[in-house]
């Protein structure tokens, strides 16, 4: 099967260093249309297309924009979250690399729709090679009058600044990201106050993922309804997925919702290396859930994946063949969270440490059934009581693996003098 090009329709069509080249393929036509619309009209257009946020939370994006519009404030802020720290997720990188001006245009449209006058792009440190591309796009947009004061003669003022993180995965969480922009330690804070009311520098803030924003200019120009014609009734349109791991052609693909997992893995990604069998697929990055080979014929939609115990999440698929055991994969995944936890809250700080130790005992063959019960209990406590999304989702893979691969966690205890060995 081939890529469907809606969000990726500009890839390879223009010189990403030239705003003139972008304008030759229709660039900034969506902005010119947007400033002749009411912001609520734009929000409703997004809502009619049933767009859900592409950062992993799956929140109704049109509703989010309407809510952001309703918040009162002399100054409001749009933040583009380009801190793409989920392992096996690299779709946003491709959008920035191949269509940077579209992202800038999308942020300006968001600013108009929500009454914001400031925009920030927060990009992960590891994407430093893309900084010059975005800085050039921002500079050229200013030179052409698309950023700054009185944009397109509509009395609309909006500017964008680019910030880079320092490589902390937890800064993908909204409040930690905001603290990082403010020059503070990138650690989450309690909510409320919610970001939409008091975000960066205590200003009303709307935080959106790169892919979420990048859709907007294309939707505004989609007179024929190409986007809405794709997908299913509840999962409308297309999605970028990044496939990595034990596949022959890893990469980023735009698929209509409803494409089966098999078509993604064995079609677009070229299948597993010759002679290898599928062990598991992890959906949505390091904090995503795992499924066995029986997921292959499941349509890739929000509702169908959820019925199989997994989620779309960030759009990443990590394909693992049987050369890696389930337990070894869980240990590698746990090493990531043990390293990336900010350590601020006890459930996440201590929970990650103890789960790592128990997984090591399981690997060494020294774990007891009580260890396994304790590990499951800790994972559940983390999901219910951690301060932020990192701790809440860190054990998604473990808990799902305990359901899908129960045999991995079966422990035979030899009793000697009443003591489990």
Task: Please specify the SSE layout and strand pairing.
Layout: H1 19-24, H2 29-34, H3 39-48, H4 61-70, E1 77-82, H5 91-98, H6 100-114, E2 118-123, H7 131-143, E3 159-164, H8 174-181, E4 205-209, H9 210-220, E5 238-245, E6 251-256, H10 261-268, E7 278-283, E8 289-291, H11 302-307, E9 316-321, H12 326-340, H13 346-364, H14 369-385, H15 389-393, H16 396-404, E10 415-416, E11 419-420
Parallel strand pairs: 1-2, 1-4, 2-3, 5-9
Antiparallel strand pairs: 5-6, 7-8, 7-9, 10-11
Helix pairs in contact: 3-4, 3-6, 6-9, 12-13, 13-14, 14-16
Keywords for this structure?
421 residues, Rossmann fold, Ubiquitin-like (UB roll), de novo design (two linked rop proteins), 3 domains, five-stranded mixed beta sheet, four-stranded parallel beta sheet
Describe this entry's structure for a reader.
The chain is α/β, with parallel strands linked by helices and 421 residues long. It has three domains: 19-220, 3-Layer(aba) Sandwich (Rossmann fold); 238-321, Roll (Ubiquitin-like (UB roll)), CATH 3.10.20.600; 326-409, de novo design (two linked rop proteins), CATH 1.20.1440.230. The protein has 16 helices and eleven strands. A five-stranded mixed β-sheet has the order 6-5-9-7-8, with helices on both faces. A four-stranded parallel β-sheet has the order 3-2-1-4, sandwiched between helices. Strand 7 (278-283) and strand 8 form a beta hairpin. Helix 13 (346-364) runs antiparallel to helix 14 (369-385). It is globular, with a radius of gyration of 22 Å. The termini are far apart.
């Amino acid at each position: 099967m081939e890529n469907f090009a809606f969000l990726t329709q500009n890839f390879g069509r223009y010189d990403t260093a030239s705003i003139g080249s972008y304008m030759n393929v229709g660039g900034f036509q969506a902005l010119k249309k947007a400033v002749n619309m009411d912001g609520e009209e734009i929000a409703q257009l997004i809502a009619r297309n049933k767009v859900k946020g592409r950062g992993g939370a799956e929140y109704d994006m049109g509703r989010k924009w309407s809510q952001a519009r309703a918040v009162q404030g002399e100054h409001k802020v749009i933040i583009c979250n380009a801190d793409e720290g989920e392992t096996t997720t690299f779709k946003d990188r491709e959008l920035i690399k191949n269509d940077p001006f579209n992202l800038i245009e999308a942020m300006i449209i968001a600013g108009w729709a929500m009454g914001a006058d400031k925009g920030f792009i927060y990009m992960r440190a590891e994407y430093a090679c893309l900084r010059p591309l975005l800085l050039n796009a921002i500079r050229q947009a200013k030179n052409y009058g698309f950023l700054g004061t009185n944009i397109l003669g509509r009395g609309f003022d909006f500017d964008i600044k680019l910030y880079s993180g320092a490589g902390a995965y937890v800064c993908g969480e909204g409040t930690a990201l905001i603290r990082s922009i403010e020059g503070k330690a990138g650690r989450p804070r309690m909510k409320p106050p919610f970001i939409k009311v008091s975000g960066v520098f205590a200003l009303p803030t709307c935080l959106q993922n790169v892919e979420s924003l990048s859709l907007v200019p294309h939707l505004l120009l989609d007179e024929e309804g190409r986007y809405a014609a794709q997908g299913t009734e509840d999962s409308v349109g297309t999605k970028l997925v990044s496939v990595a791991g034990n596949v022959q052609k890893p990469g980023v693909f735009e698929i209509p919702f409803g494409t089966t997992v098999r078509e993604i893995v064995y079609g677009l990604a070229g299948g597993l290396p010759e002679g290898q069998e599928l062990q598991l697929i992890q959906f949505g990055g390091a904090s995503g859930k795992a499924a066995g080979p029986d997921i292959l014929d499941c349509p890739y939609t929000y509702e169908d994946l959820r019925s199989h115990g997994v989620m779309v999440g960030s759009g990443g698929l990590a394909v693992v063949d049987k050369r890696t055991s389930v337990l070894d994969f869980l240990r590698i995944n746990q090493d990531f969270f043990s390293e990336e936890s900010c350590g601020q809250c006890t459930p996440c700080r201590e929970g990650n440490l103890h789960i790592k130790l128990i997984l090591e005992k399981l690997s060494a063959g020294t774990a007891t059934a009580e260890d396994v019960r304790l590990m499951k209990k800790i994972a559940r406590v983390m999901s219910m009581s951690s301060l932020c999304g990192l701790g809440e989702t860190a054990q998604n893979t473990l808990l799902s693996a305990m359901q899908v691969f129960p045999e991995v966690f079966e422990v035979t205890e030899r009793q000697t003098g009443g003591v489990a060995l």
